[in-house]
Amino acid sequence: MKKRKYRIFALYLLISFAGLLNIYSVSKSLGINLFYKHLTAFLLALIIFLIFHRVKIPEWKELSYLFYIIGILMLLLVLIKEQGVKRWFHVFNFSFQVSDAVKPLLIYFFSILWAGSKRGGYIKSFYFFILHLLPFILILIEPDLGSATFYIFLYGIFLLYSDFEIKVKLLFFFAFLSLLFSFNFLIFLIFSVLSLLFVIFGKKFVMNDKLFLTFSIMMPGLVVPFIFNNVLKEYQRKRIIYFLNPSKDPKGGGWQLLQGKLAIGSGGITGKGFLKGTHKSLAFLPAAHSDFAFASFAEEFGFIGSLFLLLFYFLLLREILSLSFGLRGFYSFFVLGIFSSIFYSFFLNIGGVIGLIPLTGIPLPFFSYGGTNFLIHTFLLSLCTAIGD
C-alpha cells in the first residue's frame, strides 16, 4: 500500500511539473502574469497534500446527508448571489468555482449512499438518480454543462460497480445509448425499434416491467432535442454543432477546435522546443493555459512528450483504480469517486482538444491553469493516498 502511495505522489508531481513548464511557456509567449499565480496554487496544493495524506477518513453515515445539503446550498447560493455567469463565488479578494468546491462533499455523500445499498431495483435506482440529478441541474443553470454532467457520469459508474440488479444496469446502458443516438433521427429510430424488441422478448431481464422500461429507454433520447433548443446556451449549442462539423465555420465557432488540432500536429515527433511554440505566441491557439493546455504542450514537446504525459495520467488512474478494487464498502466507492472525477476531467479535456467530443471548458487535472480545480483534485488525491496508507 505504501509503495502505491509513493507512486501516486510521484506521478502527481510529474504531471504538475509538466503543467508548470507549460504555464511558464504560455506566460512568456503571451506576456501575461499566469505562472506565479499557478506556482502559488501548486505550492498551496502541495501543503494540502502533505497535511491530509495521513488523515484517517471516517465513515460518517449520519453526517453524509448534511454534507449533501451543504453542497446543494452552496450551489444555490452562487445562483442567488452572483450576477451573469454564476460559476464563481467571490469572498473579499478571493474567488473559487463552486462546482469544484462541492465535489469532495458530494462524492463523500454518494459513496456512503451507494455503499450502504447492497441490492436495489428500479425504485431505489430512481431515488439515487434524483439525488444525482439535483446538483446536475443547479450546475447546468450556472451554466456549466461539463461540470454538471459529471454527476450523471458518477451515477453510471457507481451503478455499474454496485450490487444492483442486472436489469437496472441494462436500463441505464440503454438509456445512455438513447441519449447518444438522439442526434441522428435515423439511428435513433433503428435503436428504438431494436430496444423495443429487446423489451418485448427479453423476458429473462425485463420480466413484467415492459411499459416502464420502454418509457425509460426512450425518454433520454426524446428530451434531448428539447434540452438542446431550450435549455443549453447559444455557445453550448455551437460547441456541439462545430464538434460535429468544425469546418462549417473555420473562422468562427470551429476556430478553436481546428487551431487546437493544428497546434498538436505542428509539434511533430519531438516538438518545436520549449518556449518555441508559435500557435500560442501568435495568439492562434485560444486558452492555451487552460482549455487547450494539452495542445500547447504538444506543440512544444511533440508526440513523444505528449505520449509521456498521457502515460503519466494512465499510470496515475490505474493506481487509483487498483486501490479502489482492493478496498471494500464506503472506502472502495470513495476512491472510485475520486478516480471518476480525475478520469472524467482528463477525458473531457483531451477528448475535446483532439475532437473526440465537444469542447466543455473542463481543465486538465493537475496540469491546466485554474486554482480551484487544482486544489480540489489535489485534496481528493491526498485523501485517496490516506485511505491507501
Fraction of residues in helix: over 70%
Query: Shape from CA axes?
Result: globular
Percent range for β-strand residues: under 5%
Mean pLDDT: 80
Order of strands, main sheet, comes to 1-2
How many strand segments?
2
Structural class computed from helices and strand pairing: mainly alpha
Give, in order, the helices and strands.
HHHEEHHHHHHHHHHHHHHH
- Count of discrete structural domains: 1
Major beta sheet summary: 2 strands, antiparallel
Task: Count helical runs.
Answer: 18
Distance linking N and C termini: 6 Å
Give the radius of gyration: 22 Å
| Uncertain stretches of 5 or more adjacent residues | none
Provide structural commentary.
- Helix 16 (293-325) packs antiparallel against helix 17.
- The protein has one domain (2-387).
- A two-stranded antiparallel sheet has the order 1-2.
- It has 18 helices and two strands.
- With 389 residues, the chain is mostly helical.
- It has helices at residues 2-30, 35-52, 61-81, 98-101, 103-115, 122-141, 145-148, 150-161, 166-181, 185-201, 203-206, 210-230, 234-244, 255-266, 278-281, 293-325, 329-354, 371-387, and strands at residues 88-91, 94-97.
Which features would summarize this protein structure in a list?
2 strands; single chain; two-stranded antiparallel sheet; globular; mainly alpha; 389 residues
Summarize the entry for a quick read.
The chain is built from 18 helices and two strands. The chain has 389 residues and is an all-alpha fold. The protein has one domain.
